[in-house]
Amino acid sequence: MFLQSLRLELSFKEHVAKYGEGEIGVKEVIEKVMKDRVKADKSVLPRICALDWEYNLSSIFVEVETPLVRLQFIEPHINQLIMEWNL
């Protein structure tokens, strides 16, 4: 989560700098920042759980599918979660 937070902060600051004193395009920020699917380098992951699982959860926008459920969420601190059951 720490790496995601840093990436989110950096990306947001880049967009704010792009607009300067003008209005920030909310739709563009959501598309570019909040839906960022770039994953962290495996070498910097904390290895708290399985490496493949951490890697798949390392982007700001996360989409994971298991046999029982499909999850989509944006950086855990944002608390936006979309869940679809695969029944």
Shape: flat
Q: Detail the poorly predicted runs.
A: 77-84
Please state the average pLDDT score.
76
Helical content class? 40-55%
Estimated structural class = alpha+beta
Number of strands: 3
Tell me the strand percentage band: 15-25%
Q: Summed up, what is this model?
A:
The protein is α+β, with helices and mostly antiparallel strands. It has four helices and three strands; from the N terminus they run H-H-H-E-E-H-E.
Topology at a glance:
Layout: H1 2-19, H2 26-34, H3 51-56, E1 61-65, E2 69-74, H4 75-78, E3 80-85
Antiparallel strand pairs: 1-2, 2-3
Helix pairs in contact: 1-2
Note down, in words, how this protein is organized.
- With 87 residues, this protein is an alpha+beta fold.
- The protein has one domain.
- It has four helices and three strands; from the N terminus they run H-H-H-E-E-H-E.
- It has a three-stranded antiparallel beta sheet.
- The radius of gyration is 15 Å and the shape is flat.
